[in-house]
Amino acid sequence: SYVLTQPPSVSVAPGKTARITCGGNNIGSKSVHWYQQKPGQAPVLVIYYDSDRPSGIPERFSGSNSGNTATLTISRVEAGDEADYYCQVWDSSSDHPVVFGGGTKLTVL
Amino acid sequence: QVQLQESGPGLVKPSQTLSLTCTVSGGSISSGGYYWSWIRQHPGKGLEWIGYIYYSGSTYYNPSLKSRVTISVDTSKNQFSLKLSSVTAADTAVYYCATTADLTGWAFDIWGQGTMVTVSS
Cβ distance A14 to A95 under 8 Å? Predict the structure, then answer.
């Protein structure tokens, strides 16, 4: 089945920009979704269709996807952004259509 | 606004069947266009998709769990359910129900709060 690879951790200072990557074979040809999960809470969709934001998600969250890498970018990082972030794709050609990345722990220094 | 709520036993004995229900409120499970999923998360680990069901009853399961999983829907109660048979300690996890649709590129835009299930004698 399709594999998504994320770095286990990313650290960033408040006010700076965090970039979390999600690698996959020709991932640019797929729609990538991103979730934020804080401790003890359910995941929250923050980006869908590579770069669209659901209502209520700050404009500081953006996404891009090209080639073999999708990227979640968080601008002007705040302490409240500290969380685990997961990427996900829907691989309709596979017998395992829903694939999640392993997750990235974002630490705000 | 659609909301999801999981319910079921928090403790299941090894070799028994885990049974959970997800109640949908604020919308109809029969409205079409949405797929109703179960996702789990082992303690301290990432997300694992279990399977989904459409209101018509069509299902699709994670191949690694397929032999033990049954997802069903009860449109009269606006609920869908998960049964996982022959459980072991490896099935201890937080179980989430979630919904996805073509509108969002099959992203899971609504999640339940999750329910912790422990498999232990």
Answer: no
Candidates A105, A106, A103, A107; CA nearest to A5 is A103
CB contact under 8 A, A54 and B109: yes
The CA-based dihedral angle spanning residues B81, A41, B116, B66, taken in that order and rounded to the nearest 10 degrees = 50
Q: Which residues of chain A have pLDDT under 50?
A: none
Give pLDDT tens digits for A77-98.
Answer: 999 999 999 999 988 778 888 9
Instruction: Identify each DSSP E strand in chain B by its residue range.
Output: 3-7, 11-12, 18-25, 34-41, 47-54, 59-61, 69-74, 79-84, 93-101, 108-111, 115-119
- What residues 2-61 of chain A have any CB closer than 8 A to a CB of chain B? 31, 33, 35, 41-45, 48-49, 54
Which among A86, A98, A99, A100 is the top mutation candidate for probing chain B, defined by the most B β-carbons within 10 Å of its own β-carbon? A98
